[in-house]
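Please complete every field before forwarding. Incomplete forms are returned to the sender.

SECTION A: IDENTIFIERS
Entry label: holo-405
Bound molecule: pyridoxal-5'-phosphate
Molecule representation: SMILES string

SECTION B: INPUTS
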Amino acid sequence: MIPYGRQTVSQDDIDAVISVLQSDWLTQGPAIEGFEAALASYTGAAFSLAVSNGTAALHLACLALGMGKADRVWTSPITFVASANCARYCGAQVDFVDVEPGTWNISIESLTAKLRQAKQDNKLPSLLIVVHFAGQSCDMAAISQLADEYGFAVIEDASHALGADYEQGKVGNCRYSSMSIFSFHPVKMITTGEGGAITTNDPQLHKALLALRTHGIVREPEDLLAPADGPWSYEQHSLGYNYRITDMQAALGQSQLKKLDQYVAQRRTIVQRYNDMLSDTPVQCPIQKPQGAPSWHIYPICLWYSAENPKNLGTITQARRQIFTGLREQGIGVQVHYIPVYRQPYYADMGFSGDSFPVAESYYAGAITLPVYPALSEDDQQRVVDVLHDQIDLAANLIADTDSP
Ligand SMILES: *Cc1c(COP(=O)(O)O)cnc(C)c1O
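SECTION C: PREDICTED COMPLEX
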């Protein structure tokens, strides 16, 4: 099976983990600070904080901004459920903003319209969590302008986008946001097994995150509310969690980070080849915007997508299922990223309907994620494309040219 994504672990990574195992610190030791410093330096953010996973990073970021029952949090429907769940952990209400064709990132047009309406209804969000889908940055300059105009905070879910460029900097530099979060799950850009991180330029947020990561406890003498009983003193100021990462994981992360630019370059080469090889097929390849260079965590295609001449989504769904199954049967580990979050029963029960998100619905009907990872060989990639061509030919009879909704 050719998987849709997989980690690259080499001997230097293994050596880095072993040297931590032979040291005095398995957790809360110097490897964590080393990894955090390397991440801050790589992204260009002032601070970085490593945590147990990307979901924990999202949860802490929402908590540090004080999200609670009175707040509305908006995010993209084309994302992993964690981007929305983190707001629910804080009791906040979740809503979604439709995506734009081609990048499948939050649409600035939809966001602007939804904000205008929300202002009239007195239901403006306190927070927008943008998702840099597939590793391509959202239009952060436009989003931060809207954030200023309508008064909401911005968190970047950059789980896909470590190593991506936007304007003159790296995603994660938080030039246009309060915080960015990353995931180091094995399919992501670099891995620590499980792991995540938050970057920020705000020293107050960094301090709040440090305490929340470890039960809401502070230890520095200047942070204590009462005179210290002794050198052992600590105080719990808020209800935090144990969201720490281990030193073994941090050492693996720091070793992986050294190779990130090489991984990104390999992914970009593979994606360019896919774009060329699929140009004569009824496939909408991901569109790259001129403001940046994506990291290409995944390669999501959409079958028979057409904004001008939309086809019946029911027949596309049927053809996609046949093509997807055919690819899997031929040993190609395709995936679908993602089932729109509002379709999940947990969210659908809140009253969401696909009618509010026409682009997300069209995308989902034809979506298939093709394999991309640094070690994917040219031969394997050719095989993916050959099988896809065959499967599209087999399914094409389902899609008639006259077929309109
Ligand atoms: C992977 C991912 C997460 C969650 O990360 P974990 O480390 O698995 O908790 C959140 N958001 C997006 C968009 C992701 O892809």
